[in-house]
């Protein structure tokens, strides 16, 4: 089935499509203290919550980019009801194709939970660093191993050991590229339970209201498999953090 439809169905209950709680997202926004009219891009913006909050808090200008037509439509709807849409656009495109008008011209560039777009965490940092001004913010959300993954977890989930690093290696990847790690927002098991559990809830609700969808059996099967892997292994094995980097203003 269409992968984007699958994620639309399983994330219907989510505002934030990653394991960060809305309270922690609010804390992140508070920390940033962007100037009015700051220029930002959020690549893989999902339903646009981070960018909308930046617009509400600081009047930023910029773009949210996502490959999903479902999420982009949702983000546009939500923007209209939340804040003046002046200066904010949501565009459906492959994030890998985004280039700012000028390199090193943005105040903030983020990619929260989609580092595969650039071929992994290190390449994502490289791409975003190339977009921001000296002193600009680079914000990435990335899983990390809390413990060695078991073979059973890797086989069942389809994740490879190399897909992710440790919490410290995720941080070092930015510091080694001339950025300063100024904060992390780390998800708790409770945050993860909510992120995973909302997918189970959304899927059950979809099954109840769309019994004739020919994709339903596949959705149910994929979600059941992921739920079992999360409960058996993932809950203790995989972590998630948002890494807040700032480019050194003297470079
Ligand atoms: C885990 S979600 C994170 C969404 C959002 N950043 C958030 O935290 O709420 C991953 C997002 O990446 C988007 N995505 C996947 N591949 C993409 C690509 N090649 N270009 C742009 N967006 C992509 C998906 O549609 C989805 O919205």
Structural summary, described in words:
The chain is an alpha/beta fold and 251 residues long. The protein has one domain: Vaccinia Virus protein VP39 (Rossmann fold, 3-Layer(aba) Sandwich). Helix content is 44%, strand content 22%. The chain has helices at 3-10, 22-32, 49-58, 69-82, 121-129, 151-157, 167-175, 189-209, 216-237, and strands at residues 39-43, 61-66, 88-92, 106-112, 132-145, 179-186, 238-247. A seven-stranded mixed sheet has the order 3-2-1-4-5-7-6, sandwiched between helices. 38% of the residues are buried. S-adenosylmethionine binds next to strand 2.
Provide a short characterization of the protein structure.
By secondary structure, this protein is α/β, with parallel strands linked by helices. The chain has helices spanning 3-10, 22-32, 49-58, 69-82, 121-129, 151-157, 167-175, 189-209, 216-237; strands at 39-43, 61-66, 88-92, 106-112, 132-145, 179-186, 238-247.
What would the keywords be for this entry?
single chain; 251 residues; alpha/beta; Rossmann fold; 7-stranded mixed sheet; 9 helices; 44% helix; globular; binds S-adenosylmethionine
List the SSEs and their pairings:
Layout: H1 3-10, H2 22-32, E1 39-43, H3 49-58, E2 61-66, H4 69-82, E3 88-92, E4 106-112, H5 121-129, E5 132-145, H6 151-157, H7 167-175, E6 179-186, H8 189-209, H9 216-237, E7 238-247
Parallel strand pairs: 1-2, 1-4, 2-3, 4-5
Antiparallel strand pairs: 5-7, 6-7
Helix pairs in contact: 2-3, 6-9, 8-9
Bound molecules: S-adenosylmethionine (SAM).
């Amino acid at each position: 089935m269409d992968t984007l439809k699958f994620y639309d169905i399983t994330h219907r209950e989510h505002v934030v499509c990653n394991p960060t709680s809305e309270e922690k997202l609010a804390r992140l926004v508070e920390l940033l203290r962007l100037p009015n009219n700051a220029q930002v891009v959020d690549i893989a913006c999902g339903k646009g919550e981070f960018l909308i909050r930046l617009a509400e808090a600081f009047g930023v200008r910029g773009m949210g980019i996502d490959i999903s037509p479902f999420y982009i439509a949702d983000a546009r709807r939500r923007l209209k009801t939340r804040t003046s849409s002046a200066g904010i656009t949501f565009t459906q495109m492959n994030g890998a194709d985004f280039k700012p008008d000028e390199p090193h011209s943005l105040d903030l560039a983020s990619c929260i939970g989609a580092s595969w777009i650039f071929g992994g965490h290190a390449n994502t940092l490289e791409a975003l660093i190339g977009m921001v001004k000296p002193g600009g913010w680079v914000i990435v959300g990335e899983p990390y191993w809390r413990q060695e993954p078991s073979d059973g977890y890797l086989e069942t989930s389809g994740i490879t050991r190399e897909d992710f690093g440790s919490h410290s290696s995720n941080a070092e990847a930015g510091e080694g590229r001339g950025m300063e790690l100024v904060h992390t927002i780390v998800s708790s098991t409770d945050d993860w339970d909510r992120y995973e559990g909302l997918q189970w809830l959304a899927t059950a609700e979809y099954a109840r209201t769309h019994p004739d969808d020919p994709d339903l059996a596949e959705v149910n099967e994929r979600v059941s498999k992921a739920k079992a892997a999360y409960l058996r292994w993932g809950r203790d094995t995989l972590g998630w953090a948002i890494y807040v980097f700032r480019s050194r203003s003297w470079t």
